[in-house]
Amino acid sequence: MSRPQDPSGDRRPSRRCPDPRRRVWTRIRGYGLPALALLFLVAGGAAWLTPRFRTWSETVWLVGLIVTGAPVVLETVRGVFRGEFAADIVATLAVVTALLLGEPLPGLVVVLMQTGGESLERYAAGRASDAVRELEAQAPRVAHVVREGEVTNVPAEEVRVGETVLVRPGEMVPCDGVDLEGRSTVDASRLTGEPVPVSAEPGTALMSGSLNGHAPLLVRATAPSQESQYAKIVELVRTAQASKAPLQRLADRYAVWFTPLTLAVAGAAYLLSGEVIRVLAVLVVATPCPLILATPVAIIGGINAAARRRIIVRTGGALEQLGRIEIGVFDKTGTLTVGLPDVRAVRPAPGFAEDEVLALAAAVEMGSGHLLARTVVGAAEVRGLAIPRAREVEESPGQGVTGRVGERRVAVGTRAFIASIIPAAADALDAIDAKDPGLHAFVAIGDRVAGTIEYADRMRPGLAEFFRTLDELGIRRTILLSGDRQPNVDEIARRLGIREARGDLLPEDKVRVVERLVDEGHKVLMVGDGINDAPALSAATVGIALAGHGGGITAEASDVVLLVDDLDRVADAIRIGKRSVRIALQSIGVGLGLSGCAMIFAALGMIPPAVGAFLQEAIDVAVILNSLRARR
Predict the structure, then answer these.
(1) Is pLDDT at 71 greater than 60 in this prediction?
(2) Superfamily of domain 340-458
(3) Which positions are annotated as active-site residues?
C-alpha cells in the first residue's frame, strides 16, 4: 500500500502527520482521564465521610466509573480488533464487571491506576521527533539557472537535467551536477561526514547540499533536485522512521501469559462457588498495575539518571532497548576519530630532511586559510621548528599554495598543482600517488619534488578500553561504516581490532547495512555524528548521536543524544538501560507474585472487591518504591 502524499508529491508517512483529533484524544486520555478519575474518587470519598451525603457516594463513584471507564474500555476493544494483546485487557474486564455488579469503587480505582500508568509511560516517552521537517528546512531552495545568457532565480525543484546553474560562494549546490567552469573548494561534510573540503574543478561531480567555498562555479545539472543526494537523505530518514516497528511494551510481553492465567483463576472461582462477586474480586486484585507502573517508573528513573550524565534519552522504549543491544555500528569520522585531520608523517625525498620539508611547507601555508594548511602549521609548531617567513604567497583555491622562502620557491598542494609547476616531475608524482592512496599533499622546493605530507584523522583516546567495556556489556560484534576511502577505514579498523569495516559508503548504503541487521532479528546500536548518519540512526534499534559534532537533524533523527563529546557516555547509556530494565523486571516479578497470592485468596472469597482494590494499591506502592531505585 502506498503512503499518502502531500500536494507537492513528497511521500509522508502517516505517523509523522497524525490526525489532530487523534492527537487531542491522546492528550485527554493520557492526562485528563487520570485526573478526572482521581477527582471522582476523592469526591465520592468525601461524600461517604459526610453522614448527610453518604448515600451520594455510590452515585458519584458510579458516574465517575462510567465517564472515565468508557474511554478505557473503548480503547481496549479497538486494540483487540487490531490484534493487540496488551496488559489492559484484565483492567478493562475489571471495569466492566464492576459496572455490571454495581461495585463502582473498585472499578474506579482500577481506572485510576490504568490511566495513571499510561500517563507515566507517555511522560517517559517524551515528545515525537520533527527530524524530517528540520532536514527539509535546510534543503537548498533557490537555484541560479543560466538561460539564454541570463541568470534566472528559480525554485530548486524546477532545475532541469542539462541546465547550467551558477553556484555563488557560500551557497549550497541545489542539485547533483558536474562542474563546468570555475575552481573552488566544496564542503561536503554534511553529506559524507568527512571534514576536509574537496577540490572542485571542471569535471568534478558535485552533490546537492554541498557548500561552495570562495569562488563561483558553473554546474551542469545531472539530476533534478527531487532525485538528488540531499533529497535521498530526506527520504531515507522519513522511510526509516516510518518503517521502524513500534517497540512492544515490557508490560504487554508479560501480559501474554498473565492475562490468560487471571481469566482461568476467575473462571475457576465462579465454577467452584457460583458467586460472580468473586470473579470481580479476582479481576481487581489481578489488575496488572505492577505491569503498568513498574516499567514507566523505572524507565523515568533511568532517563533522569542518564540526564545527570548529560545523556538525553528521547523515549522510554529506547532506554528499554539499550539493555538488549547485541551489535554496535559506528561511524568513523567525528565518532571514533576527532573529525580533524592531523599530520601523520612527513616523507622527504632523497636530498631533503624531514624537518626542512615541514618547516618550509608551514612557511607558505601560514598564508592559507585551508583546514589542512592550519594542520601543517600546527604540526611544525608542535615539533618546535622555526618557521621562516614567506613572501609572494599565492593560493590557488582547492589546488595549493606557493611562495618564496629566501631565494627558493616552495609549493604545497595536489598532484595536478605540483605537476603544473614542475611538468618534468609528473612521473615521480604518479609513482608516489600509486604507492600512497591516502590523503596527502606534495611539497616542491625549487624545481624538485621535496616530499609528501601525509594526513590522518586522529583517533579518540581510550578507544581500546571503550570497546572492551562494550564487550563486557554484551556487545560482541562491532561494525565500522564510513564514507571515507576503504584503505583509511581499514587502517582505523585494524588499529581498533574491528573485524568488519566498510568504506566508500553513501547514506543509503549505511541504511541498507543497518536495516539488514535489524531484519535478521538483531538489536542494533548505531552511533554517528553527521547528517549523513541520520538515516542510519533512524533505522537502527537505537540511534545515538554525538550532538557536539552534528547538526540538529542528527540529534532529531536519533533516540539518544550525547550532550558532551565523550564516547564513553555510550557505554554509560547502555549500562543505565540494562539496570533500568533489570529493576523493572524485579518490580514486575514481585508485583505479579503478590498479585498471584491475592488472586488465590480472592478466589476463596477471603478478599472482597473493595478491599482487593486497596490491597492492589499497596502492592503498587511497593512496586513504585522499588522501581524508583533506577534514579540512582
Answers:
(1) yes
(2) Calcium-transporting ATPase, cytoplasmic domain N (3.40.1110.10)
(3) 331
